[in-house]
Design brief:
Layout lengths: L12 E2 L17 E5 L2 E8 L6 E5 L13 H6 L3 E5 L9 E2 L7 H15 L4 E6 L1 H12 L4 E7 L12 H12 L5 H7 L7 H8 L9 H9 L9 H11 L6 E6 L9 H7 L9 E3 L6 H19 L24
Length: 329
C-alpha cells in the first residue's frame, strides 16, 4: 500500500545551526544533505561507495549520532554505511508545528529519500521508530532490500494491549513542560553516558520549538483499530508474512517497552526461520550505545552468511516532491 501522493510544502521550517554540532565525541563524519519535498534531510555516508549499503535508521528522540560505535566496525569490514536523520531530528530540517508531522508523512519523506538516492541491495538495521518507518519502507519497496535486521522495535497495528510503561512515556512526551533529550536517551542505556554524549543528543534542539517531531512520535504509534495507520501497517504485515529474504532480530534484555516483540517476527516472517536471533544482555533500549561494536559484528556476520540473490530491477524512482540535488548547503 504505497502512498504516491505529493509531499506537502511546509513554510515554517527550523534548521539547527551547524555550530551546535561542533563538539560531537567520536562522530567525525561529514554530513550530506538531500532536498525532499522542500526539506533538507541529512545523512552520513561512510565506507566504499561501490559496496551494497547498510542503512541504519534511528528512532526517537535520537539521531544518527546513535550509531557512532556501530559504523567503524562495519566500515572496517568493507561495508558502505548510510545513516540518515529523520525529519525533525539531528541535522535534518525541523518543521515547527506539531501538525506538520504524522506517521504517514515520516514514511513518505523517507521513501522519497530512498528513491532519490536509488539505493539497492540494502541491508536495513532499524530500531525504535526506525523500525516503524523502516519496515514500511522495505515493504513498500521490497526489490530494493536484500535483508532486514530488527532491534528493539516493531510494527504495531493497534491490536492488543498497550503496555503501561508506553502510556506513561506517551503522556510525558506530550504534556511535560520540559523534554531533556540527552537525559532521556541516557535513561534508556545500561552504561552511563558522559556529559559530552548527553550534550550531543541535545545539540539538535536549541530550544523547545525544535522538538515538535521528537515529542510527537509516541502519539503516532497505532494503539487502536481506529488509528489512521492501522490498515497500512496491516498491509505491511501481510507483506512481511510473504518475506522470504533474510530477517534477523537482535533485541536486548533490559528494554521494558519492546521486550518480547521479536517473537511475532520470528514466527510470522518466513525469512526469519533458521536465523541466529539473539537477545543481548546488559543492553537497554538504545542497544547501539550499550553494545555498538558487538552489533557491528553481528550485522557483518549476518550479511556474510546470507549472500544476496542477483539484483532485482526496480521501477524508476517517483519524482513527485523530490529534488534531484543530492547534496545541498
Amino acid at each position: 500500500m504505497i502512498d504516491r501522493g505529493s509531499l506537502p510544502v511546509l513554510r515554517d521550517v527550523l534548521r539547527t545551526p551547524e555550530e551546535r554540532f561542533s563538539a560531537l565525541p567520536d562522530f567525525p563524519y561529514t554530513p550530506h544533505y538531500t532536498l525532499v519535498g522542500g526539506l533538507r534531510i541529512a545523512h552520513i555516508d561512510a565506507g566504499p561507495q561501490d559496496a551494497p549499503p547498510i542503512l541504519l535508521l534511528h528512532g526517537e528522540p535520537s539521531w544518527s549520532f546513535l550509531y557512532r560505535h556501530v559504523i567503524p566496525g562495519l566500515v572496517a569490514a568493507g561495508h558502505r554505511v548510510i545513516a540518515p536523520d529523520l525529519v525533525g531530528c539531528g541535522r535534518s530540517d525541523k518543521p515547527a508545528h506539531p501538525a506538520d508531522y504524522s506517521y504517514r508523512r515520516h514514511v513518505r519523506w523517507m521513501n522519497a529519500w530512498l528513491l532519490q538516492h536509488d539505493l539497492r541491495e540494502v541491508t536495513l538495521f532499524c530500531q525504535d521508530w526506525g523500525s516503524l518507518i523502516g519496515l514500511r519502507m522495505a515493504m513498500d519497496h521490497p526489490e530494493r532490500f536484500a535483508r532486514l535486521v530488527l532491534a528493539n522495535g516493531g510494527l504495531p497495528t493497534g491490536e492488543g494491549t498497550v503496555p503501561r510503561v508506553f502510556k506513561i512515556w506517551r503522556a510525558f512526551a506530550r504534556w511535560s513542560p520540559w523534554f531533556p533529550v540527552g537525559r532521556i536517551v541516557a535513561t534508556g542505556c545500561v552504561r552511563t553516558l558522559s556529559a559530552a554524549e548527553r550534550a550531543a543528543y541535545d545539540a539538535p534542539f536549541p530550544n523547545a520549538r525544535y522538538q515538535s517531531a521528537v515529542r510527537s512520535f509516541p502519539s503516532f504509534v497505532p494503539t487502536s483499530l481506529r488509528d489512521p495507520e492501522h490498515e497500512r501497517n496491516q498491509a505491511a504485515w501481510r507483506c512481511l508474512e510473504a518475506w522470504q529474504k533474510p530477517f534477523l532480530t537482535l533485541f536486548s534484555s533490559r528494554d521494558p517497552i519492546t521486550r518480547g516483540l521479536e517473537g511475532a517476527f520470528q514466527q510470522r516472517v518466513p525469512g526469519a526461520r533458521g536465523q541466529p536471533h539473539d537477545v543481548l544482555h546488559q543492553a537497554g533500549h538504545f542497544l547501539q550505545e550499550d553494545c555498538g561494536p558487538e552489533l557491528a559484528r553481528r550485522i557483518d556476520a549476518f550479511v556474510r552468511s546470507t549472500p544476496s540473490a542477483a539484483p532485482t530491477s526496480a521501477p524508476a524512482a517517483a519524482t513527485v516532491g523530490v529534488s534531484h540535488h543530492t547534496t545541498v548547503p
